[in-house]
Amino acid sequence: MSTQEKVEEQVLEKTVDHDNSEIVLYNDDVNTFDHVIETLICTCEHSPVQAEQCALLVHYKGKCTVKTGAYNELVPRCSKLLQAGLSAEIV
Fold it and tell me: Model-level pTM greater than 0.85?
């Protein structure tokens, strides 16, 4: 007589909502306000005022969502932010 065990596993998956993703910019001690502002204007098409507000939020709060949209559209923008030396990720 043999016994068989049934094993139940839970699989946790991280799903990416491709229609509503965000680029989050994180604070660092390396980049100047001017560099962050100029990069946001060029990369994320922010107005100068919007870029300055995001830079201040990042500085005082530690992070800020700088762009939302479809995942595929955010990937090249996030790559440009990283190439400019900023700390960012898509969530």
Answer: no
